[in-house]
Amino acid sequence: MSHEALKITKSGKLGKILLDLNIVTPEKLEIALKEQAARDKTNPRRLGEILVGLGFISEDDMLRAISSQLDLRYLKFSEFPKTIPSGAYPTLKFMKQYKFVPIGIEDNIMKVAMTDPLNEYVTDSLQIFSDKELEICLSSEKDIMEAIEQYFGSNVQMTSIMEGMREEEAESDEVELQEDVHHLRDMASEAPIVKLVNMIITRAVEGRTSDIHIEPFENNVKVRYRIDGALTQVESLPRRIQPAVISRIKIMSRMNIAERRLPQDGRIKLRVSGRDIDLRVSTIPTIYGESIVMRILDSGTALTTLDHLGFPPGTVVQYDKLINTPYGMLLVTGPTGSGKTTTLYGSLNKINSDEKKIITVEDPIEYQIDGVNQIQIKPQIGLTFANGLRHIVRQDPDVIMVGEIRDVETAEIAIHSALTGHMVFSTLHTNDAPGAVTRLLDMGIEGFLVASSLIGVLAQRLVRVICPSCKEPFKPGQELIDKAEFFLNNIETYHGSGCEDCRHTGYSGRTGIFELMVIDSEVRRLILDRASSDVIRENVVSKGMTLLRESGWNKVQEGITTIEEVLRVSQEGI
């Protein structure tokens, strides 16, 4: 329907249309109108939004009714064109605020999808802005937002920046920039490079990315994001702009841009989409230039509680008892990126109270916990884990968290703190729970000290969760079943077929699988006898400890994750 035809039809108003089609009762409409009238004039809401918000009608019902009454086509996102012609369009802010998106221009007509075609302010503004006739279609807010991102979002902006830079490159015959530091600094400050780096970071933050990898190769520079523990390539940059991009990141993280032969570490603090973001930056020289990895630490992210980490009911009860023990040492083990620190933060958050003094020594401080004294280590001035821990015990703490036991000195001080009446939490890099005992013994810690101080070890891994939007039943092949030694043929399994919501990976988010070893008198005797981790494992398994892989199979049976994920993160026999 044309813009002018809509103006004529507008006399019917939305409330009357809904009443005429028996979608809403007069009583419910009156409630919604009162709600609308009661709102502050500076923060108005459309009647349709209020009706949907009150649960009186669904958005789909409302849009289909308006579509029928106004003779407008109702479009789903799948019916939108994949791309739209280049040209002048309204700003992203304006489109998002009023929930509309242009979906094409043909001759002298601009086709627009809207949630509220009766909003004269938007339609008049669009007609003045484009100087074209409008063809209005109806669509839901979700579909419109997806279309805005597809047509005008960060991906499109990134492509536009890259195309502009390639045009500049084609017009320029400048020599290689490798040796001219002043020229590099100038290039790194130019608008296209600044926009490109900002866009790489913004896209990563908006896409649940944990790490950004910028890696130089012979012919190009790959940009990869680690999302839900898996790397995926998102961009390939021209080889020629690599020095300027690397220099821009090094300037932002206060590194020495002239030093390209040695690894460097830095930090960037940014505000992205209203959130405070901290990036740990690491550079390392490779054969084709410096490779950069940026770890994203989102201090604005809500602190994950133990209830949301995926603990099985039986394990969480045991773990709750351990973290509420008045003294002793509790270790969380696993490889880098297995969620150890998140578990410790959740543990501290659960036991945090006015009656307990909690002090942490960390590198880095990933979350800020109200009421907890958190110390950031600074090895360059002598504040190491061991040194910080040595001084912490003089601060009269009840609970101490050491970010990681990296050396024998830190291990000894942590154990002595546990033996002198403190509850100590820390992490260790071992494959399974029993392996933590042998690791401490191998570091040179006396067996009687380990046996006396250690109260429990939690080993964990993170597995990706099947995307709920494209989850479907899945029958594994025999080869996959053979690999899963605990797996039973008659269990129904699922996987994700891949969709827009999960970037066609079949997964969205992660959850934990756990192996909790509680130290009892029998295990203590084994530690004193310096028994191997295999012997300790057999003992605790005989008493009911769930192994990591078994915990994973339970998640498979519950339809949370896939067989492939469990096999990926856990070893045979663990």
Task: Record keyword descriptors for this entry.
alpha/beta, 23 helices, single chain, 574 residues, globular, seven-stranded mixed beta sheet, 18 strands
Describe the structure concisely.
By secondary structure, the protein is α/β, with parallel strands linked by helices.
Give an overview in words.
With 574 residues, the chain is an alpha/beta fold. 40% of the residues lie in helices and 23% in strands. The protein is built from 23 helices and 18 strands. A 7-stranded mixed sheet has the order 12-11-13-14-10-15-18, sandwiched between helices. Helix 8 (141-152) packs parallel to helix 9 (154-171), helix 9 (154-171) runs antiparallel to helix 11 and helix 17 (433-442) packs antiparallel against helix 21. Residues 7-12 and 167-179 have low confidence and may be disordered.
The number of helical segments is: 23
Overall mean pLDDT:
82
**Major sheet:** 7 strands, mixed
Strand order of the largest sheet: 12-11-13-14-10-15-18
The shape is: globular
What is the rounded Rg?
29 Å
What percent of residues are in strands?
15-25%
Number of strands: 18
Unreliably modeled segments = 7-12, 167-179
Oligomer: single chain
Kindly name the structural category. alpha/beta
End-to-end distance:
64 Å
Estimated helix fraction: 40-55%
